[in-house]
Amino acid sequence: IVKGKVSKVLAFGVFVDLGQGQEGLLHVSQFEHLGKPESFLNGQEVTVKVVELNHKYDVKRLELVDDKPS
Predict the structure, then answer these.
(1) What letter would DSSP give residue 70?
(2) Which of 13, 17, 45, 62 could form a Cys-Cys staple with 24, CB 3.0–4.6 A?
(3) What angle do CA 64, 23, 59 make, to 5 degrees?
(4) 3-state class of 54 per DSSP?
(5) Spatial separation of the C-alpha atoms in residues 17 and 21, rounded to whole Å
């Protein structure tokens, strides 16, 4: 479980900067009960859990830990 900052907001989810050059994807399916991706703002702090590492595409799939955008 880590804190990160929203770095990109896209139609299918948000990318979160995890620090140290690491980034992960928080897919819209992980927070659709809270609203659309646009409910997140660039630079907004979120608490996430890394649930999958995709080494082929160097992407981390994230799950939202706090149940609301902060």
Answers:
(1) -
(2) 62
(3) 90
(4) strand
(5) 8
Show the tokens assigned to 39.
């409910």
On the 0-12 / 13-18 / 19+ scale of CB atoms within 10 A, 47 is middle
Residue range 14-67, pLDDT digits in tens = 999 999 889 999 999 988 888 899 999 999 999 999 999 888 877 899 999 975
Total H helices, total E strands in the chain: 0, 5
The tokens describing 32, both together, are: 């659709």
CA–CA distance, 35 with 20 (Å, rounded to integer): 29
Task: State pTM to two decimals.
Answer: 0.86
